[in-house]
Amino acid sequence: MTTEIKVPSFPESVADGRVAAWRKQPGETFDRDEVIAEVETDKVMFEVPAPARGRLTNVLADVGATVLSGQVMGEFEKVDTLDAGEAAPAADQRQTTPAMSPSARRRIEEEGLDPKSIVGTGKKGRILKEDVLQAPASDAKPPAPAPAPQAAVAAIKPAATGARQDRRVPMTRLRARIAERLVQVQHTAAILTTFNEIDMAPVMELRGRYREAFEKRHGVRLGFMSFFVQAATEALKRFPEVNASIDGEDIVYHDYYDIGVAVSSSRGLVVPVLRDADGLAMADIEGRITDFAKRAGEGKLEMDEISGGTFTITNGGVFGSLLSTPIINPPQSAILGMHKIEQRAVVTDGKIEARPMMYLALSYDHRIIDGSSAVRFLVTIKELLEDPARMLLDV
Known about the structure:
This protein is an alpha+beta fold. The protein is built from ten helices and 19 strands. 33% of the residues lie in helices and 25% in strands. Helix 7 crosses helix 8 and helix 7 crosses helix 9.
């Protein structure tokens, strides 16, 4: 008697998904709760665990197929025990392809690494993305040998011809959803961007003075993002329209502050949300952001962690961006863009000095936020960060 394997239940905001991988093939055995497939949605990657011990008998949704929540994607037959004969196929498979996270698998394929030579540090030896990044370069596939000097000239033309190839790869669900939302917001919102610059010396001095003590006490590094989250939260309290959203012909003012912080993953940019940011200490903010970034790389963020949000902060400076115009994450009405800190000549008290400066950008929906409010909001963040004591004193 066969038992159905169903697609995990999606939240209401997710319409469908795509089968990203089958970790088991027909005829292979698995234990209860062992991951047998992966389903990718526009937000997160779902792992499909085995509901019971058994043997896969039929795959009804191949890799790349679009599936709906609760849809039957495969079948298996239950087995009471896995004796040596039954366990052999699964064991052989694990030896050939060790268990690994979705992001680790993609990285291994991209880099051409041998998964058997990578030591997994995850649960039950599962290979994580961090394990792949730390893998020795010798694990990579050896490059093609260079042609002998006499054949070098003759090899140039075929090599150049062979290099002109096109690769067609299906767009991931996340990338497709990002594209859809970005085009949507460009057509439905009146987006403007205002800029300012901030002298980061006070924050850098404060961070340098207490960094070691902070890490020792709280067990997490003190970064810049916690300063910006706290400054943005205080500014949102003073300018509630920046924390609002449009719903039809109504303006919805939010009396809570759920700050989205954009983090990069192998699947694209995701925006996990710091709920009730106004009640979080800096250590809490740094700890949660670190955890978000780690699990984003592993594809383990939960749906409710990347849904919602009333305001977003994105930091292009970590990639070297000097200036940009971030795009609003709908239905939010504004997004703050941080950038690279760079030493620039500025005039201070009539003297030219080299100061660590950062450009800030605020993109906002002009339908709900007036230009004066947007400018004053950004100036408030500038003033708070150039004199961090103002946040403590609430002035």
